[in-house]
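Protocol step 4 of 6: structure prediction from sequence.
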Amino acid sequence: MKESRIFQVKIGNEEQLATKNLVKGTEMYKEKIVRVNGEEFLEWNPYSCKLAAAIRNGLQILPIMKNFRIICVGATDGSTISHISDIVGSKGSVFVIDSNKNKKSFLNKLAASHKNIISVSDNPHEQLYSTSITEKIDVLYVDIPQLDQTELAIQKYGSLLKTRGFLMLAAKKDDNPILENDVVGWLAEQRAGLNKIRVLINKLKPQFQVLQEINLGLNYTMKPPFHKSHVFILAQYLQKDNDC
């Protein structure tokens, strides 16, 4: 997929994904900065970011555009949030649902330099609609290891999506032993690991149309797999806005 929002830059002897750096001179997770003709680009490492891995493995639609409003739940590693921030630009918004106290200092640092990133406390007693997020959003991005918590996050924040808005979901498969030297066994293991994902997808179908599933346990460049235990799901919200 070739997009004007995503760039290819030369790092060493290889072409790597990159986004145009929204805040020049800053890097948040030790990614490489590449300068070309006065423009500054941040390396987008698919081993650090599941969204980049999904792009590498054939994501057909990247539903993140300039000026979009995005909610990110669980993706507090900095890599994903930083690159989404680059794409939506200064007039877009990236609302990060912050439930991990250990990540708060890092998230505050990221939000301090990127004014389009807003940290939102995940308080079950707080009415989210009347606080930071007062308008419908374009994309909900969820990356939580526990599938039951993933379901809860989709239930809680999915209703904030615009009609035909997008859900981007990095879901963890069953944990199975990795078979290093048995290709046939490894492929069987990959299929078996999708059982939980199938159950989750069936639960999504009443509200979402699933557009694409990408196994991040594969790497078509014959290098080590990007994220052995994860599948990336792209879906579109079917419910109508209440205010339409």
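Step 5 (inspection) to follow. Residues 138 and 165 are 5 Å apart (CA to CA).
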